[in-house]
Amino acid sequence: MTSASERAVVARVRTRLPKLEPGCRAIGVRWTDAARWQGGRDADIDGKQVRFADCPSVLAVLDALADTAATDLTVVLTALPDSELGDAVLARLHRGRLFEADRYTQLSDVLGARALDPRIRGEAWLVDALITLAEDGKIPPTAGATLGKARAIALVASARLGIDPDLADLPRLVAAFDDTLVRSQWWQLPEAERKGLVAHLGDRHGAGVGVVAALADRYDDVLALLLVAHTITSAPESDTRASSAFGGFQHVRFSTPRPSRDDVAAAAAAGIAYARDAPAARLNQQLRVAEPMLDELTALDLAAYSPVLPRGFVERLAAAAETLEPSAFEALEQHLQADDSTYRIKPVRAAARLHRWLESSVLTDYATATDGIAHHAREIAWVDRALTQVRAGDGEPRVAAVLQRVARDAGARRAGLDALFAARLASMDSTPSKALAVETFLPRVVAPLAAKSRVLLVVVDGMSGAVAGDLAERITDRRAGWTEIVRANDDGRESIVAALPTETRYSRTSLLCAELRDGNQAVERSVFPKHSFWPTGGAVLIHKSGVAGRDGNDLGADLESAVGPDGPNVVAVVLNAVDDSLSKGRQSIDPAWRPEDVTGLVPLLDRAVSAGRIVLLTSDHGHVLEHGAEYRHQPGGGARWRPSTGAPTAGEVVAAGPRMLAPEGRAIFAATEEIRYGAEAHGYHGGATLAEAAIPLIALLPPGMPMPAGWTEHTMGPPRWWDGTARAVAVPAMPPAPPKKRSTKKPAAALGDGLFEITPDASRTTRGAKLTASAAFKETHSEFPANRVPDPAVFQTLVDALIKAGGRLPLGDVVTVVGAAGRNPRGLVTAMRRVLNRDSYPVLELVDGGRAVELNGTLLDEQFPPDESAR
Q: Full-prediction pTM beyond 0.90?
């Protein structure tokens, strides 16, 4: 059959066949279609031979009835009224009348619905579509139901496009038309049905529907075209390049009437939304198509406006590099490719950090080598992390040029610090009394801690302060419950002074033997467990060969036994991944280190949690990486030091004394990373630079363990320039000893003097303002050094925010509320609890497993009565 009307006739006849009177050989059907019957004259319907007779006159009806013997059944099709046919003719028809068989009647028969919305009758395309889909079994049963127009359209849209108009949105419609099968079926639909669906969907989701459908009517690459359209329409209308490109796009891709710029932009925005969740294979194929399309419009230089096109990512990356502005980084992070291209973003972000450091740092001399060691722990290790990223480079020339410039400038400033430090290190003639050194680390740090807690000492051979910073950040940020702790009075990290030369045989042996000496693994294994300062419970040392497991175990049998709950109080493990990488290199596009990059570290952390062991992550020396170092051939010595034959030249220092362990008690060391004496490798150690001589110390408290006495949470965080929250500070001296209780007449700190900077709202007397004005608060706050607790303005702001929020805030929101972005929120709360939780009353607490902070208003009023306020 060629039309829905003719199919309606056949369907009507089929429903009457079982009900024919005996001997009845004719059925009359009212046929009002303006066109003549186009179907076949004869047909087989359910096993009966049926002849269709188109009868425009009474005579034609009589002729058809006279010929009924030639077939099983004759269907008389006529538009004549009953009055013209007469009773005699009607009596020869089934039931003595003409049956209705228009499309609407057929629809009712096919659907079996109890009632149909009369508005459906006015939508011919909808009636035809419903009949076709019902006959093909492609819509759910509606027997006995009332079918409204909206539901009817939803049934058609679901069958044709796979969407529910009431639940879908424009991006979902783009997804439907991006499906090859849907587009193929769409092209085969009658034009009236396509227009009807588009009109209905457009009423619900805007004119962008028409744009998407118009593209789907003509093209396979709907998504690619929408990505191109988004790039063009995202540029300012005043941009002549964009205006010209849009005109070309509009003229070529659409027939008249052509859509407006706003309608195209709406459809394009939906395309972007869909692209973010599109199947990867399809998206990549469409991206490959889209960029040449943009180029055809001479608009490839507009790609920066696209958050999806690969060229857009490159343009945004270049913009971030050339401006180093936060807004450029925000645009870059919004690009779809950002998550998979962090290895390209990190160097540019590191360049911005180094730029801020160069603008804010003050180069002053180190009074002693330990000043340099402290400075490295608190700031320069962060510089080294950023420099490592910047030196990774990029393939885009514009980005590479910026990275090279920043690396050159920061490297020069960094070299100046190394020169100052190396001179002080070379003259260091005794073990430092306050700072940690390899020979004092075990008795001063590990043994006292082991007297109170079980300890896992992990010595990552060759790990620099930069690598340690990477690992600590990953462990505390991404492994639930781990907390970095420190013993410094200002909550900052410490470093350990290495022995010279900064090589394993000297510095690691000195660290594990707790005395300055030369040695090897055998010496270390022999001496380490016999130290007299070890508390009850013993100690064991396991080197690299004992770390790897076998037969399905991730750790060696001896190490597994030792690190377990029944093992010695102190377990020391040497891991060699970092040192090995200096000669072998790393198979990584990101120079940053992750815990899983250090073989054995992750399972050791897991065992530490199970056994309740505090982890001390340290090294025996650091390293410098190769980036064009000058080779100076010298026999003897090592990669970064040489025998003291002749006077030191540029970039070298001569060292002697008890902490210099090379043969003859005197040697010449590289004082800059630009020199090497050995074969080229990926990195070197042995010299006298900060990165080699400053051994990092990261102490990690497993989840659920109490804070050991004499330790506190690490709250200092990165230097302010790292996240751009403030200007950096000058080179610090060694942290002073904890001060005695200060006078309650402490002058108010100027904004910016404390750890956190914020401007209080003095326009009203809030509960936070009353808190900081109370005598109880002032007295308690004054008992702590200024660098261990936040400024009173921070207390005021957070208390007011907590009260406004009903007493509880997510932990991550704390730093945003007080304007200390980039700080460790847990550390901030810990610092505030020192003041607010006086006498151990829990005024401020971490709840929900440390995910939220809660203020107890009742205890706040009891401990810091508001009536003590003096405004």
A: no
